């Protein structure tokens, strides 16, 4: 039984190792990553345009007559914008730098895409109707 | 990624009038993005620098807290 257990554990390590080697040997499409980073940054910029329109509204806290925006919404939106800026800038820096680790670039670009889309979704949900 | 691009294009076209009214030519932004995708290439430095300039201009505006509600102010 000990021998069969050790064989099972060994098989698991072998499978994990093969998966790692396979993952490492898959070529990373750096052109696609650069394009995705560019799209993420563009999405972030487009969302800022909508944010600006929202910020131009009166604060409901001072005057609740519509159209207005609550200060709490503004505060949340600014936090999301800052996070999207950091993520898209990191991805941009990574794709524009020669010698960047492709695996790290892929992670940063995915994070940038998620952050930019999240920002776009938030501003779209709160935009002036 | 294709879904992201389609979503961005759809968003820009739907809100085109409002976005133009915002004083920023986002159609130009869309054409820059589309050119890079259509030509299957990496964005070049001037294209990135143009995006950075647009981002900085907007950031100065959206990070201005002068219009914010401050309790007790």
Explain how this protein is built.
The complex is a heterodimer of chains A (129) and B (73). Chain A has 129 residues and is mostly helical. Helix content of chain A is 78%, strand content 3%. Chain A is built from four helices and two strands, in the order H-H-E-E-H-H. In chain A, strands 1-2 form a two-stranded parallel ribbon. The model of chain A is unreliable at 9-23 (pLDDT under 50). Chain B has helices at residues 2-14, 16-21, 26-38, 45-62. In chain B, helix 1 (2-14) packs antiparallel against helix 3. Classes of the chains: A mainly alpha (129), B mainly alpha (73). The interface between A and B is large, with 38 and 40 residues.
Strand and helix layout:
The complex is a heterodimer of chains A (129) and B (73).
Chain A: H1 2-25, H2 30-55, E1 58-59, E2 68-69, H3 71-96, H4 102-126
Parallel strand pairs in A: 1-2
Chain B: H1 2-14, H2 16-21, H3 26-38, H4 45-62
Helix pairs in contact in B: 1-3
Q: Main traits of this protein?
A:
heterodimer; A: about 130 residues; mainly alpha; two-stranded parallel ribbon; B: about 70 residues; 4 helices; about 0% strand; elongated
Largest interface: A-B, 38 and 40 residues
Strand coverage percent of chain A: under 5%
* Number of alpha- plus pi-helical segments of chain A: 4
Question: Using only CA atoms, what is the Rg of chain B?
Answer: 16 Å
What is the approximate shape of chain A?
elongated
Instruction: Going across the biggest sheet of chain A, name each strand in turn.
Output: 1-2
Amount of helix of chain B: 55-70%
Provide a brief overview of the structure.
The complex is a heterodimer of chains A (129) and B (73). Chain A is mainly α.
